[in-house]
Amino acid sequence: MPASKGLGDGMAVEQNDLLRYANMQKSVYNPVGKDNPEEIVGWYGYHENVPYETNLLYRYGDIRRPIFPDFQKLRAFDIGCGEGRMIRRMQRIFGQVDGADISEAMVEHARARSPNSEIYVSSGLDAGQAPSDTYDFAYCTISLQHVCVHATRDAILDDIVRILKPDGKMTLQMLFSKYYPFHHPRRIRQLGRWGLQLFNKDSNNGTWFQNKTDAQGTNGRCDVVIGTNELTAVRADLLKKFGVVEFWFYDISIDRAGARSLPENHLNSHIDDQYWGTHFVFIHCAEPRKG
Ligand SMILES: C[S@@+](CC[C@H](N)C(=O)[O-])C[C@H]1O[C@@H](n2cnc3c(N)ncnc32)[C@H](O)[C@@H]1O
Q1: Ligand 1 centre from 253 Cα, in Å?
Q2: For position 96, which CATH number holds?
Q3: Which of 80, 124, 155, 162 could be a cystine partner for 22, CB 3.0 to 4.6 Å?
């Protein structure tokens, strides 16, 4: 890893800042859910009801369009696997599922819960000691969306290119808001016959290219959100590492259980009234550019 990592937008991030961010992440993630590791997931029941498999493995979430003709003999890798929730789910589909996580505590839980999997401790900037040119597929769910540092995600994805086979593929679940950068709506004040409503711009989270290495929190405290206007630039960024980059979306602005649909000027989702995400975006990449 060079002392500073040059980015496409001309910014450079010092290695020290990346390490400081990784240390902050470790100090947050290691204690969470030590005794009850499901806590690391947050909204465990909600996430267990999201059809991640369909969206990670089928183009546009359409079961007629699998990204591989057959999954059974293939080897998959979970980026930021936590206690291994998605490793267990993906084991029903793939021949072998391995993974890595920055939290040693989570790696211990994942190893105990999936003894047939190889689970590596990541430095926060890589896939740990996972072997090169080995995996047919790499994926992440609710992990890279919490990394508000482009250079950190960039380093991890470089290492994913290393561990993928030359014909390997990857799908990342990330957060998307149709309207990001989001403006939080405040309550309407009545001024005579006028209604006045103020909106304040979200500064808590980061855009795809930001490097918020000084973030004091993660896992919902400072996430990365992709907005409609950023999609072209995100694709161009990932095309540096992969020959093919595609997007598809899973709508979280409609409450499936209660059939609640929210008005456009209150751009929140069924997770919470103040939540700004409207979709999960599934970023699918193929043809890793090796060497
Ligand atoms: C909300 S949990 C999700 C766990 C799992 N992916 C799931 O879907 O249940 C986020 C996980 O990402 C891991 N993580 C965060 N940043 C990471 C990084 N830079 N490198 C590796 N793992 C990371 C955390 O330790 C944590 O276990």
Answers
A1: 24
A2: 3.40.50.150
A3: 124
